[in-house]
From TrEMBL:
This is Homoserine O-succinyltransferase. Pathway: Amino-acid biosynthesis; L-methionine biosynthesis via de novo pathway; O-succinyl-L-homoserine from L-homoserine: step 1/1. One of its GO terms (cellular component) is cytoplasm. It comes from Thioploca ingrica. One of its GO terms (molecular function) is homoserine O-succinyltransferase activity. It comes from the Bacteria.
Length: 382
């Protein structure tokens, strides 16, 4: 039974859906005539609406960031370690909003949603989405909730990139920007990993050019391989070695190609379980959004120039074992902010967990995160 009654848990939560009928023009040149956004809230919005926090999710994340849906749930939301009473994102102080991005597969309009023009799932016809598109749609949700300025916009990995885009596109609409385990753009190696993952999906015989919904099948093998590849990049070599080493499942070698090493078993389990909860077309969209993120591109590849007009205060956090988004990438953001004489705090956390460290209850990380959040001023707070 989940620990719903724990004093630091937000308890049982219920997702909400808002339908937008105002068209949304996208970076790709297309327009979504209408769309839904699913979101959850934790805590209470204060009288002057000054205590709101926006959580932006990573590639495979969604709106369910904290709490439980039922007493039967085995696991809480994906960032429950950091959201709740007394936790870094303290719901005794903050009103927290967590949403599922457009293009997602957990209720917000995406490839597995019905296209009103055809009455069939969008599938591959769903438009390519960028971080800037997400931020625009998130700003509209803020308007619906009566939030004209966020106390902070934050996230890890792709979520941190969205937070950075927020500070650039809506400088007056957030007081703090917190980007954890993020980067100002992907390296060629990262783009390469994403391309291999996409090729695994698109070359699955059950992919059907993205129209697999109509055939009542899933590109299971391709999506499983994509997730296995992703997990290799999310964990560090040290974390892999500490967790699995070269341990054999049955203590001996069988001289075959079935699962023999524990790490093989782990990767196959992660791949198979992911297939049952995530959509392949959404995976393609999310990796493309990662590839395209590059706010400095329109400023002659000068990140400092891209950050000239930001007004928020920043917290940038990296992890020593994260080779997917290494500390050097976070320091690029810090330097660009300092070049503009912006207020920025930076923490490089020693950790062995790799890129996934931002999801873990690492004591030093939690202390740094909590200390920063505690000093965020909330107008009208007693």
């Amino acid at each position: 039974m989940p620990d719903i009654l724990s004093p630091d848990c937000v308890g049982l939560v219920t997702p909400q859906t808002h339908h937008f009928s105002t068209p949304l023009a996208l970076d790709c040149g297309r327009t979504l005539a209408e769309y839904d956004i699913v979101y959850e809230t934790y805590g209470k919005l204060n009288e002057n609406h000054s205590n709101a926090i926006l959580i932006c999710h990573a590639l495979s994340g969604d709106h369910h960031a904290a709490g439980y849906y039922s007493m039967q749930d085995k696991k809480p939301g994906w960032w429950d370690t950091c959201i709740g009473p007394g936790k870094p994102i303290d719901t005794n102080r903050f009103f927290v909003v967590s949403l599922n991005n457009l293009g997602g597969c957990k209720g917000s309009t995406g490839p597995n949603s019905i296209n009103p023009e055809t009455n069939k799932p969008y599938g591959p016809d769903f438009p390519i989405i960028t971080a800037r598109d997400w931020v625009k749609s998130q700003a509209r949700l803020g308007d619906v909730l009566g939030i004209s300025q966020w106390a902070a916009v934050l996230g890890g990995s792709l979520g941190g990139m969205q937070a950075l885009q927020w500070a650039i596109d809506y400088p007056k609409h957030l007081r703090h920007c917190i980007a954890i385990a993020a980067a100002p753009k992907l390296t060629a190696q990262n783009i390469a990993f994403n391309e291999v993952a996409r090729q695994a999906i698109m070359n699955d015989p059950d992919f059907h050019a993205g129209h697999y919904y109509q055939y009542n099948v899933i590109p299971r093998q391709g999506l499983m391989l994509a997730r296995m590849l992703g997990h290799i990049t999310y964990l560090s070599d040290v974390a892999m070695r500490q967790k699995f080493g070269r341990e054999l499942r049955e203590g001996k070698i069988h001289f075959g190609f079935d699962v023999e090493f524990q790490v093989e078993s782990y990767l196959r389990y992660q791949g198979r379980s992911f297939v049952d909860r995530f959509d392949a077309n959404t995976y393609l969209l999310m990796t493309k959004a990662l590839d395209y993120f590059d706010p400095a591109h329109e400023c002659g590849d000068n990140l400092a120039a891209a950050l000239t007009k930001v007004l928020a205060k920043f917290l940038i956090v990296s992890f020593t074992s994260d080779w997917r988004f290494s500390p050097a990438r976070s320091r690029e953001i810090v330097k660009a902010l300092l070049d503009n004489k912006k207020e920025v705090s930076y923490a490089e956390i020693k950790a062995h967990e790799g890129h996934d460290a931002f999801l873990m209850p690492i004591p030093h990380y939690i202390r740094v995160f909590q200390a920063y959040m505690q000093q965020i001023n909330i107008p009208g707070e007693k």
